[in-house]
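step 4 of 6: structure.
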Amino acid sequence: DIQMTQSPSTLSASVGDRVTITCRASQSISSWLAWYQQKPGKAPKLLIYKASSLESGVPSRFSGSGSGTEFTLTISSLQPDDFATYYCQQYNSYLFTFGPGTTVDIK
Amino acid sequence: QVQLQESGPGLVKPSETLSLTCTVSGGSISSSSYYWGWIRQPPGKGLEWIGTIYYTGNTYYNPSLKSRVTISIDTSKNQFSLKVSSVTVADTAVYYCARHSSSFTYLDYWGQGTLVTVSS
């Protein structure tokens, strides 16, 4: 099975900050990685797919990069609506796995 | 706009079978482009993929749950369903149904989720 890790687990930041979250896979997944945002009591929302493709309607301050085993999600200028938990998910094989999540909270 | 809605009992007794249905609107579940999945999230914890089904009935399960999980599809009703047998308190979670975009890939549309509590 492919294991996913994320760092940090929690991140405290202020509005306007540049934020970077890292996701690592236990083996190469090429670019088969997605990022989701989840707010309390809500379903996850797709932000990024294929490591760096921005889902339609998602603000351009979100970007993704990486390939192989290391990936990053960057928020260029954190907005009040961005305080949430972020999950990466690999879809390299017929066995999806999610990362444990990174919570972005207010500093 | 595709919409998904989970339905089913919110309370299940230990050792019994959890049953949920996902109704899809705004699109056909028989489309050859999409797969349909179930994901769960225990309270305060992360996301776990349970399994996925294609309109042909082909299924893919998380090995950690495979022995207790059955996913089925009813194309006439535009619905797919989840059954988890022999549940324990560890199966208490919010259960989501979702659509895989363009074949067996990421999840682009999600239901709102439904909390299922396992308790006597």
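step 5 of 6: annotate
 - The two ends of chain A are 36 Å apart (CA to CA).
 - Chain A has a mean pLDDT of 96.
step 6 of 6: archive
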